Amino acid sequence: MKKIFTIAFLLIGCTVMAQDPVAMLQKIDENMYSNTKITKSKMIVYGKRKNKEIVMEAYSRGTKDTFSEYLSPAREKGTKMLKLDDKLWIYSPSSDRTIQISGHMLRQSVNGSDMSYEDMMQEKKMVDMYTPTIKGEEQMNGEDCYILQLDAKVDDISYPKVKMWVEKKNYVPMRQDLFAKSGQLLKTINMEDVRPVNGRFYPFKMNYKDVLKDGKGTDFIVIEMQDNVPISDNVFNKANLKK
Amino acid sequence: MFEFLFKGLIRDKSRSLLPVIVVSLGVSLSVFFVGYIEGMMGDMVDQNARFGTGHMKVMTREYVKNIAQKPLDLSILDAGDVIDDLKQKYPEVDWVKRFNFGGILDVPDENGQTKTQGIAGGMAFDMTSNNSDLKRLNIADNIVEGRMPKGPFEMLLGQGLAKRMNVKIGDQITYFGSTMDGSMSFQNFTYVGAVQFGLSVMDDKTFLIDIKDAEQILDMEDAVQEIYGYLPNDIYDDQEIEEIKNSYNQSFANDEDEYAPQMLALRDQNGLSTMLDMVNTMSSAFTFFFIIAMSIVLWNTGLLGGLRRYTEFGIRIAIGESKRDIYKSLLLESVIVGAVGSVFGTILGLILTFYLQEVGIDMSDTLGNSNVLFSNVIRAKVVPTQFWIGFFPGVMATFLGALLSGRGIFKRQTSELFNELGV
Amino acid sequence: MDTLYNIGLSFRLAFRNIISSGLRTWLTITTLSLAFVMILFFNSMYTGWEYQGIRDQVNWEFAQGQVIHPDYDKLDPFTIESGHGKYEKDAHLTPVLIRQANIYPDGRMVPILLKGIPADQQIVELPTQLLKESKANIPALIGLGMAQDNNLKVGDTILMRWKDKNGTFDAQNITIAGIFETNVPTIDAGQIWIDLNRMNQLTGLQQEATYLLADAEYNQTTNASWNYQDKEALLKEFYELIELKRGGSSFLYGILMLIALIAIFDSQVFSVFKRQKEIGTYIALGFTKKRVTFLFTLEGTMYAFIATVVGSIIAIPLLSWLHEVGIPMTSNVDQSRKMGITVGEYIYPLLTPELFSKTVFWVVILSAVISYLPVRKIAKMNTVDALKGKK
Fold this sequence. Notes:
heterotrimer; A: alpha+beta; outer membrane lipoprotein receptor (LolB), chain A; 13-stranded antiparallel sheet; 15% helix; B: alpha+beta; six-stranded mixed beta barrel; two-stranded antiparallel ribbon; 16 helices; 52% helix; elongated
C-alpha cells in the first residue's frame, strides 16, 4: 500500500517536474536572453495614414545592456541608442548630441510605435520577476502551447501580471498578455516564425500592441541574428554613441 | 421757405455755426464711439485670432475631431495644393501656415552633456521679413533680449522659459521631439532672443521657430498642421467669415476622405461663439447708453438754440408772423442744423475711425509695457452702423430740443418775448 | 476772511443761478451724471472682473496660500515625478497630490494630470462632496473644459492608466462623478481630480502631497523645508495682467467724458451770450471781472458737482446691487479656459472708494477747465455794452 502511494507520488512528482513552471520560465529566459547577441531587425509601425519601416542593428549583452543603431530610413540613419542598466541615451548624428531619456520622457512612444521607452527598459530575467503557474494548454499562433500565468514576486515591476502562451517543444513564448495591477489588459505581444539560432529558439516576428490604443500595433521582424558572438565592451560605452 | 431758412442760418453764425459744430462734434463722437467699441471688442477677438484660431482655420476632418490634442499625425498633406486652392478661391484672405507642437529642449554644457532640459511647446510661423504673419504676431516688437531669427535653425524663447533654461544669446539648444509620423527628431538651434508674451502660460513654455525649420524637424515638407486665414487688415467680420467657411466646406461636401480639408470659423473654436455673442451684447449696450447721453447733450443744444432766440421771435411776432409759423421755422431750422451737423459729424467720425482702423494709435510708449498677446495699439473698425447711427442723436435730439424750447413761444405773451429784446 | 466770504457767496450765487434755469440745467446735469455713471460703471466692471479673478483663483485654486514641495515646480512637468513627499498633518493645511496618468478617449492616448484632494475638503470650491457621494469604484471630477475636449459626461466611465509608487502599471475605469464649471482654467484643462484617500490606495503613496493648501489661520513657520507662497505671491502674474489691460480702456473714459464736457461747454457759451446784462450788472455792482469770471466758471463747475451727487445717488445703489447679483455675461468660460485667463461668467462690478474719488476728481477738474474756456470772454467785455446786453 505504502509502495503504491510512493509510486503514485513519484509519478505525480515526475509530471510536475516535466511541467515545472519555474523551469519552464527559465528555459524561456534562456531562449530570449543570451550573453551576447547581434540582431538586425525591422520595425514596422502601422500608422493610420501610412506605415513606416525602420531597420536597426542591435548589440545586446545579457538582459541589461543594449546598443542599437538605426540603419534606415535616411532621416534616422546613424541614430544610436544605448541602454545600460536602467539608463537610456539617444544620440543623433544630425545634432551631434547625446540625450538621456529619463523620467517623463520614458513614457513617450519609440518612433511612433506602440512601444514606449520604458517598455524597453525591462532588465531582469522573467524568472527573477515572476512566479509562474501553469493554467492550461491551448493552441496559439499555430503552435501547441502551455498557458502560463506569471505573478510578480518583486515590487518594482511594470506589469504585475502576465499571461503567456509558451510553445511546448522549445519553450518559446508565442504570445504574452501584459496586465495592470487591476487586471486590466494593457499590452499584447504576439510571436511567430520561431527559428533556431545557435541552439536557442527565437521568434523572428513579433507584434507589439498597446490594446488601449487604436491601430494594428507594431511589428518587429528579425532579419538577421547572431548569437553568442564576442562583442567588445567598448560597444556598451557612451563614447561609442558619438562614433 | 427752406432756402430762406438756410440762408438765414448761414448768415447768422450764432444760429448756425455753433450748433452745427456742437452737433457735428457730438455726432462724430457717437459715430467714432461705435467704431471704437467695435475695435475694442475686436481686440479681444483679435488675440484669439492671432494665436489660436485665425479668422478661420483649415485642417483635416480627422484633425478637427481631435483638435484639443493638436495631433500632428492628422495634419494636411499636400499643403501647397490646399493653400493654392484657398488662395484662388479667396484671394483677399491672407492664408498662412502654422504649427503648434511639443518637444524637449536640451541645453548642453561645454562637454555636450545636458545642462538644462525642459518640456516646451513650439510655435512656428513664417518669419521671413515683411511677412504678414510676422507683423500680425507682433513678435519683433516684444523681444526683450536678442533679435528675431534670421537664418535657419534659430530659436526664440519665451522670456520665462529662457530664464529657466538658463541660456545666453548664441547658446545652442537641441530640440528633441517627434516628427509627424512619430519618428525621433533632433535638431540644434541657436538661441537668438527672448520674447515677452504677457501670459506666463506662454512665457514659460513657448519657443518660436521659423516655419521652414518646423517643416524640417517635424518632417512635414509640404504638410501643414493648420492653415490660418485672415481677412484684409485683420479686421474681423463674422458674416464674411461664415460665408467663406460655408462655401469652402460645401466644395468638399462630396469628398468622403476623412483627411479632406475642413474649415472652422473663429467662432467654432475654443467656445468663442458665446464670447462673440457676449461682445455683441456688450457693445450694443455701450453704444445704446452712449447714444442716449449724446442725445441729451444735443437736445440741450437744440433747447439752447431755441432759447437764445426768444428776442428774435418777439420781433418776428411784432412784425406779424404767427406763432405757429415761427415754431415751424424753428423746427425746420433745427432739422437743417441737425442734418448738416450729422452729415459732417458722420464724415468726421468715419474719417477718425478709418484712421484708427488703418493706422491705430500705439499706446505702448505711454503705457510703458508692451507684450505679444495684448496689443497696445488702439484700433477702431468701420461698421455699417456708423453710417446711420449719428443721425439719431444728431437730427432727432436737436429737433426734440427745438420742439421743447419752441413751446415757450406759445406759453409766453408776445409782449414778454418782445421784452426779451431788451431794448 | 473777506475772500472766503466772497467765495462762499459766489458758491451760493452760482448754485442759485443754475438751479433757476430749470430744464436746461437739468439736461446738462443729466448728461453729466450719465457720463459719470457710465464711467463708474465701466470702471467698476473692470475692477469687479479683477477682484473676481482674484476671488475665483483663491476660491478654486490657491486658497489662502500654498505650501509647495521643494522639488515641485508647477511650470516644469519634469518635477511632477519626484516633486512630492511626506507632509506633517496640520489642521490648516489641505494636501493635494499630483501624478501623471493617461486616458484613452477614441483610442488615442491623452496624457493627463491626476490630482488627489481630500473629498471632505472645504477650502476650495471643487465639488468634492460628489466624490464622497458617488458609489463608483473610482469617482472623479473634471472641469467643463476637460469634459468638452474629451467628450465626457457625468456618469461616463473612461479607462485611465497610471503607475503606482513602484512604477507598476495600473489601469482602471474611472467614473465621472461630477463636472465642475470654473473660471480658473489651471485646475481644469487636462486634469482629473479624485479623492486623495482613493489616490493613496491606487498609487501606494501614503500621506504624501505635492502641495498643501493653506487656510487663513495657517502659520507658515511650521513647515520650514517646503516653500510657502501666500496668495499675493501666487496672484502676482494676474495683477500684472490686469494693469496691462487697464491702460487701453482709459481711452474709452476719455470719450465718455467728452460728451459731458460738450454739454457743459454748450451751457457756458449760452450763459455768456444770454446773460450779458447780468454780467454788466455784476460789474456795475462792483464785482471785478475776475470775480465774475470766477462766478461763471463756478456755475459750470457746479453742474459737475450736482451731477456727481445725482450720479452717485444712482450709481452707488445700482452698483452695490449689481455687485450682489452680478451681470450675466452668458458664458465666456471656454474662452478663458483656452487662453488661461480668468474671466467670470457673471461680472460683479465693484466700486472702490479710490475709483469713486478719482472719478469725481477728474469730472470736477475737467468741468472747471471746460467751464472757464467760454467765460474768458467776460474779461474782454465792455462793461457798458454788457449792461446794455450788446455784444
